[in-house]
Amino acid sequence: MASTSTSTSSISPQNFKTRKPSLARRPFKTNLNSFPFSSHLTKPISSKSYSSSSTTTTAAKLYDNEVIVVDEEMGRIRRLQNGSDVRGVALEGEKGRTVDLTPPAVEAIAESFGEWVIGGLEREISGNNDNNKVTVSLGKDPRISGPSLSVAVFSGLSRAGCAVFDMGLATTPACFMSTVLPPFAFDASIMMTASHLPYTRNGLKFFTKKGGLTSPEVEEICDKAARKYANRVAKVSTLLNTPITRVNFMSTYATHLREIIKERINHPSHYDTPLQGFQEASSHGMY
């Protein structure tokens, strides 16, 4: 019979007074031969010695490669900033340029803009905003890349939790005016256009009730979008959390412009048709 002696645990001075004296215990005795251990368990276990240096080096290389890839993907989005706008190549066909304004990139930028509006603006609740959500409108020019990129904008804004309104074909001034003209008065707006650039290009302009965004503000949005884009593995969502509402803002905007023209010309005989006779007079060289 082999006996094993018990060892007492050390007691620190801090808890010495709080410890109760333990009763004396008899040494625990056992017969190891009475347990049915398998004989192979009593044999020494041999193990190989592995060097950790090669594993560490491989892990470091993988980490470095991942960092490089993430940096490259983030750089793709940051390079899309063009001052206070976002501009890029949306279609193939331009020699020496690759498509960089892709639907996933646009989705990340639109989502970041929606979050920026929600988090950074003191907004007035629009009359048509029953769900107390931030309202954002989208207008676009007739570029052929507009429809596919519009879906990406809708998806990104919906991800951010915005109520989205589609104005269809619109002008840049109309997008800003959609944030101030009742009954629309959206909290923000995006115009999808690349102005005078070739048909292969497209871009985004951003507006709030205060006007167009500044270059530092767009830089902040693109930086946030770059992180989203670099870490996102899914493509553009096909299911939107928020339904898109189609609105006819351009009729309201046209009426607004017509009233301004009538008021400024203030024709004494035909106030409601201030441009009457303008074409005839122009053809005779009177203007």
TrEMBL record:
Is this entry keyworded Nucleus?
no
Q: Where is this region: Disordered?
A: 1-25
Q: Which GO terms describe its molecular function?
A: phosphomannomutase activity
User: What are the record's GO terms for cellular component?
Assistant: chloroplast stroma
Q: Is Phosphoprotein one of the keywords UniProt gives this record?
A: yes
SUPFAM superfamilies assigned = Phosphoglucomutase, first 3 domains
Gene3D superfamilies per UniProt: Alpha-D-Glucose-1,6-Bisphosphate, subunit A, domain 3 (3.40.120.10)
Which lineage ranks, top first, belong to the organism behind this chain? Eukaryota, Viridiplantae, Streptophyta, Embryophyta, Tracheophyta
- What is the recorded name of this protein? Alpha-D-phosphohexomutase superfamily
Composition bias, Low complexity = 1-12
Q: What family does this belong to?
A: Belongs to the phosphohexose mutase family.
Q: Which biological process, per GO, is one annotated for this protein?
A: carbohydrate metabolic process
- Cofactor(s) recorded in Swiss-Prot or TrEMBL: Mg(2+)
Pfam families in UniProt: PGM_PMM_I
Name the domain of life this protein comes from: Eukaryota
Q: Which InterPro entries match?
A: A-D-PHexomutase_a/b/a-I, A-D-PHexomutase_a/b/a-I/II/III, Phosphoglucosamine_mutase
The UniProt record lists the Alpha-D-phosphohexomutase alpha/beta/alpha domain at: 80-227
Q: Which UniProt keyword terms apply here? A: Phosphoprotein
